[in-house]
């Protein structure tokens, strides 16, 4: 926790797997969800700032822990990361993402799930889900079109490319750009401004905008169904194998 106003408190959860560029494995999903849920229930906390250790935000799902599997374990895995998103969306406190380094795949989706994204000027965003034969999760089908529009979201998901912080800002994926290495300090400064506001009004703003124009939480269930289908395909197995063998995947649509 960090005291940012002298009265209110800002909680600072840190994704701390720097050796894996903070890639999200199952354990991290559970721990992060518990941390955010606990912080949302802490009356002394007004704002949450989410950051990553080791100079990067999050490189996505941990591919070393992925393998072809049936619907039941996939649902468990996907629902675990969506528990993090639900904690952010359902909780009354604003959540800011301080993005340094990479925000890729599920890492980008995690940042976009937050209420404000502060990106370092040298950071990189990417929606590279299809590279391993899946379509996306972590709320990406709600957060990306809400921020960038449906057509831009479609293009970024169909033809993934790396985006600079400036491009992310122009597309609406980031809300502010800070100097390299200064994303966290900038996000904490923003958190101080927000924390000085009325907590009930801030909670009301989150609740109202979270249900406009449609409830994004309904999309989470559709994501589970889609992931359960895609992670039991030849293409998913090929994507994982190609990643490990450092070659281009040969997807066959089966």
Q: Nutshell version of this structure?
A:
This protein is of the alpha/beta class.
The percent of residues in helical segments reads 40-55%
The coarse silhouette is globular
Largest sheet: 7 strands, mixed
State the end-to-end distance: 48 Å
- Tally of alpha and pi helices: 10
Strand content: 5-15%
Mean pLDDT: 92
Assembly category: single chain
H-E order: EEEHEHEEHEEHHEHEHHHH
Question: How many β strands by DSSP?
Answer: 10
Task: Please state the CA-atom Rg, rounded to the nearest Å.
Answer: 17 Å
Structural class estimated from helices and strands? alpha/beta
Detailed description of the structure:
The protein contains ten helices and ten strands. It has 254 residues and is of the alpha/beta class. The longest helix has 20 residues, at 71-90.
Topology:
Layout: E1 2-3, E2 9-11, E3 14-15, H1 26-40, E4 45-52, H2 71-90, E5 95-99, E6 102-104, H3 106-112, E7 116-120, E8 124-126, H4 140-148, H5 150-158, E9 163-164, H6 165-171, E10 176-178, H7 183-195, H8 199-209, H9 217-230, H10 234-245
Helix pairs in contact: 1-2, 2-9, 3-4, 4-5
């Amino acid at each position: 926790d960090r005291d940012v106003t002298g009265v209110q408190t800002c909680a600072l959860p840190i994704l701390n797997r720097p050796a894996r560029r903070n890639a999200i494995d199952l354990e991290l999903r559970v721990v992060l969800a518990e941390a955010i849920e606990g912080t949302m229930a802490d009356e002394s906390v007004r704002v949450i700032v989410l950051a990553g250790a080791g100079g990067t935000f999050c490189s996505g799902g941990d591919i070393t822990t992925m393998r072809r599997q049936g619907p039941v374990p996939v649902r468990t895995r996907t629902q675990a990361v969506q528990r993090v998103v639900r904690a952010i969306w359902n909780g009354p406190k604003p959540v800011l993402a301080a993005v340094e380094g990479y925000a890729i795949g599920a890492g980008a989706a995690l940042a976009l799930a937050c209420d404000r994204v502060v990106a370092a000027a040298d950071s990189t965003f990417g929606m590279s889900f299809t590279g391993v034969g899946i379509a996306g999760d972590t709320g990406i089908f709600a957060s990306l079109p809400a921020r960038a529009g449906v057509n831009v979201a479609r293009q970024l998901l169909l033809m993934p490319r790396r985006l600079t912080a400036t491009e992310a800002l122009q597309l609406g994926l980031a809300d502010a750009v800070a100097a390299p290495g200064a994303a966290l300090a900038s996000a904490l400064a923003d958190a101080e401004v927000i924390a000085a506001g009325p907590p009930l009004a801030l909670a009301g703003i989150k609740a109202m905008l979270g249900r406009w124009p449609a409830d994004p939480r309904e999309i989470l269930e559709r994501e589970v169904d889609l992931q359960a289908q895609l992670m039991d395909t030849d293409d998913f197995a090929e994507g994982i194998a190609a990643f490990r063998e450092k070659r281009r995947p040969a997807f066959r649509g089966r």
